[in-house]
């Protein structure tokens, strides 16, 4: 029998505990810590053809999780909701919720060139291929096709996705509207969304520099960036941190799944985010965040940048 994981144990606890007990446990676990949740898409219904269902969360479950977290931990600025990739549904959620929760920070990480050119993502091409009946193994090869930085976001198949109802990206104007909200920051997620460890250093360096230049032209000074594919060591390493830092002084966000202490939020820091499984119910998600906080208190972090 397989050993239960921290996720399975914590979600089981989230289902079993009463809201008041869960709130008390979460308050104790998160005391003195900051939390950033990494999300992608928000929708009341998942597409039946979605091959990555964990990347979409129901708005009611996210609302419930945030309300539980805020009830457990009063105060402002300790909780951040971050959304990657610039999908229109996520941008609409931020626009609606940021005024409701002024104590919460919001970060929206967009691929500036994709936002401008309305060029979607390769993983959405995979979904389209699966719908057409392409075998899964063959469809997944679309993710690994050779990349030409200068042409990727000009591909007709990707540009057809930017306005597709299933995969619509927010417009430049919709993203700029978020910047007018006092508790929202728009950040850079690179132009092409590449996994750094699979590419030559000169390609990664060019991607970071060009995307930061594009971001600044579209959205103004850059204050935050998030690694596309952000697992330390597996998807980026210290070399890639140094490449970002060659470009400018801004926070970097990974997907190292832990909370962090306020003193870690230093200029040029690499901060962790919890990748959220959108299939979790609100109490399960909160229990999982609390469990990760307990683990962090016991073990600390093993990653140094």
Task: Could you tell me the CATH topology label.
Answer: TIM Barrel
On the 0 to 100 scale, the average pLDDT is 94
| Multimeric state | single chain
Q: Please tally the helical runs, counting DSSP H or I stretches of 4 or more residues.
A: 12
Q: Over the alpha carbons, how many angstroms does the gyration radius reach?
A: 19 Å
What's the CATH H-level homologous superfamily?
Glycoside hydrolase/deacetylase
Ranges where pLDDT stays below 50 over 5 or more residues in a row are none
Helix content: 40-55%
Beta fraction of the residues? 5-15%
| CATH C-level name | Alpha Beta
- In this structure, how is the largest beta sheet organized? 5 strands, parallel
Give me the secondary-structure category: alpha/beta
Shape, principal axes of CA atoms: globular
Q: How many DSSP-defined strands?
A: 10
Description:
The chain has 305 residues and is an alpha/beta fold. The protein has a single domain, classed as Glycoside hydrolase/deacetylase (TIM Barrel, Alpha-Beta Barrel), CATH 3.20.20. Helices cover 42% and strands 12% of the residues. The chain is built from twelve helices and ten strands. The strands form three sheets. It has a five-stranded parallel sheet with strand order 6-5-4-1-10. It has a three-stranded parallel sheet with strand order 7-8-9, with no helix packed on it. A two-stranded parallel ribbon has the order 2-3. Helix 4 links the parallel strand 4 and strand 5. Helix 3 packs across helix 12 and helix 4 runs parallel beside helix 9. It starts with 5 loop residues before the first helix and ends in a 6-residue tail after the last helix. The mean pLDDT is 94.
């Amino acid at each position: 029998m397989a050993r239960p994981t921290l996720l399975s144990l914590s979600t089981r606890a989230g289902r079993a505990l009463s809201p008041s007990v869960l709130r008390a446990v979460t308050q104790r676990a998160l005391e003195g810590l900051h939390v950033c949740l990494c999300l992608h898409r928000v929708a009341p219904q998942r597409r039946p053809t979605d091959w990555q269902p964990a990347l979409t969360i129901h708005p009611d479950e996210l609302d419930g999780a945030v309300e539980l977290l805020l009830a457990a931990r009063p105060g402002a600025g300790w909780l951040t909701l971050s959304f990657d990739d610039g999908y229109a549904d996520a941008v609409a959620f931020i626009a609606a919720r940021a005024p409701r929760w002024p104590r919460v920070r919001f970060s929206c990480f967009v691929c500036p060139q994709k936002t401008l050119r309305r060029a979607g993502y390769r993983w959405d091409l995979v979904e389209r291929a699966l719908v057409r009946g392409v075998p899964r193994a063959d469809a997944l090869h679309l993710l690994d096709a050779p990349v030409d930085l200068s042409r990727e976001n000009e591909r007709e198949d990707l540009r057809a996705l930017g306005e597709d109802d299933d995969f619509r990206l927010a417009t430049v104007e919709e993203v700029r509207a978020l910047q007018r909200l006092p508790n929202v920051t728009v950040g850079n997620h690179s132009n092409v969304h590449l996994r750094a460890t699979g590419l030559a250093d000169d390609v990664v360096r060019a991607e970071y520099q060009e995307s930061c230049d594009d971001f600044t032209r579209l959205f103004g000074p850059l204050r935050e960036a998030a690694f596309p594919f952000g697992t330390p060591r597996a998807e980026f390493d210290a070399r890639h941190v140094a490449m970002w830092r060659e470009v400018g002084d801004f926070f970097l966000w990974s997907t190292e799944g832990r909370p962090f202490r306020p003193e870690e939020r230093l200029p040029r820091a690499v901060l962790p985010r919890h990748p959220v499984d959108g299939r979790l119910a609100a109490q399960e998600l909160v229990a999982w965040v609390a469990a990760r906080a307990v683990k962090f208190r016991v073990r600390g972090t093993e990653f140094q940048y």
